[in-house]
Specification:
259 residues; two-stranded parallel sheet; two-stranded antiparallel ribbon; 10 helices
């Protein structure tokens, strides 16, 4: 990734022009990051002479990791595949697909929404106090890389939660019971991912996580009911006949006590 060209087709079609206008793909990606994230009027400076070289190496390593993720994922799957039951093996491909999709959605969400909002919020103070807004390259890209990767990882949490519920490792009842504490914990994680982002910047990431968490609980609830029917058959309220689950204390239809 350190030397992979941004336009590999030109190497074959017009090698002379390619050599004259050679640009590594990592330079093109960093330029796009600047266009989307860096606010107008903010000057990006090297800070130290070695900073651009360090950024080039770190960014190339991260891009190489992202590109190699499908291969690494396949190797892990091939290693653990013999230990799976047939019904478990059928869940692997949907899980991996959803995991990878949500990870890249999280990275894109951070680059397009979270980081621009965070940078604009921080620039407000420079404008307020009439200070020239400059940021060192290593500080800027460290924040971009960390926030984007952390957001991508956090976005995969609903998939992991659904998989744990699907296999019966955890249930939805504790998550619903302690929902308010889970929200507090999620907000702390968001505040850690978006340092100095303020309340507005935190809520830009916090609200989608809450929505995905609630959707994961709804999907997990369906899996719980399906698994319970397979094991014990259907449970019904003795008062109104509505279908209930073993975790229900009150009937969801008539609100009468079941226990």
């Amino acid at each position: 990734m350190m030397v992979f060209p941004a336009d590999p087709v030109a190497l074959i079609t017009n090698p002379i022009q390619f050599l004259e206008m050679y640009e590594p793909i990592i330079a093109r990606i960093l330029a796009l990051v600047n266009d989307y994230v860096l606010p107008e009027g903010v000057k990006l400076i090297a800070g130290e002479l070695s900073s651009p070289f360090e950024i080039w190496i770190v960014a190339s390593m991260l891009l190489g990791l992202l590109v190699s993720m499908p291969v690494v994922g396949y190797e892990i799957y091939a290693f653990v595949n013999p230990a799976f039951y047939p019904h478990e093996r059928r869940l692997i491909y949907p899980f991996l697909t959803a995991f990878i999709v949500l990870f890249f959605v999280g990275v894109a969400f951070a680059l397009l929404f979270v980081l621009p909002a965070l940078m604009k919020f921080l620039v407000l103070f420079a404008v307020m106090f009439k200070i020239e807004a400059t940021v060192t390259a290593i500080s800027f890209y460290t924040m971009v890389f960390f926030t984007a990767l952390a957001t991508g990882i956090v976005f995969t949490f609903p998939v992991v939660l659904i998989l744990l519920i699907r296999f019966g490792i955890v249930g939805t009842a504790p998550f619903k019971k302690y929902r308010r504490y889970i929200y507090i914990f999620m907000y702390i994680i968001v505040a850690f991912i978006t340092p100095d982002g303020g309340v507005a910047g935190n809520f830009i990431l916090f609200i989608p996580l809450v929505v995905m968490f609630e959707i994961a609980l709804l999907i997990g609830r369906r899996y719980e009911k399906q698994r319970f029917r397979e094991l014990y058959g259907e449970l019904k309220c003795k008062f109104c006949g509505a279908e209930v689950s073993p975790d229900d204390v009150f009937c969801p239809k008539c609100d009468r006590a079941l226990k």
